């Protein structure tokens, strides 16, 4: 839940004594901006959104064009610009690259990575996946068509959403968003995690980004880390764990 300032608490007590009420002011990060990754859109954040809204946060969901990193960063910065106050910026998967670049915005108080890429300066998705360790699962990405990528629908659930109910996983496979090859090649200039507090949720059963790679990136970024059992779609299958980490980031920003 959002924390109230001491002044707001004192004001609330005064108003209560006079029989009147008012909304308490908030001293910290009250805005959350959620950024989706490749192959999906913002609809997958619904469970996380519902929890955060119930707990009093103002939540915006970015719909990335996923055509280029620059375009996705621009869309994210628009959402940050509109926020009334400080922001916790959250990215899933490729969305981690987007928040690493967009998170240097002055309104961003902290960045939260959910089973996400957390690149260093000059790194991109393409460079981070260039040399996978032996035995690492290989995501079923089909050859590009007209500069865009898709996952093999028949293998989508097993690779991306193994712990999501079958009906939802099938919908996610059938409603894939084309992921531009140019977006994968987009390199980060100055990663936000070097100057902003960062948090990282490792999905322990991820078959898109190996958990060991997630742990390496989180350690490198100096992130506060939690690990939960879950697929790459942990934000869909376990929204409470994701929302809990986001709220921790918001509270720490106070």
From TrEMBL:
It comes from the Bacteria. Residues 1-24 form the signal peptide. Residues 32-244 form the AB hydrolase-1 domain. The keyword Signal applies. Pfam families: Abhydrolase_6. GO terms for molecular function: hydrolase activity. The keyword Cell membrane does not apply. Keywords: Hydrolase, Signal. Transmembrane segments: none annotated. PANTHER family: AB HYDROLASE-1 DOMAIN-CONTAINING PROTEIN-RELATED, ESTERASE_LIPASE_THIOESTERASE DOMAIN-CONTAINING PROTEIN. This is Alpha/beta fold hydrolase.
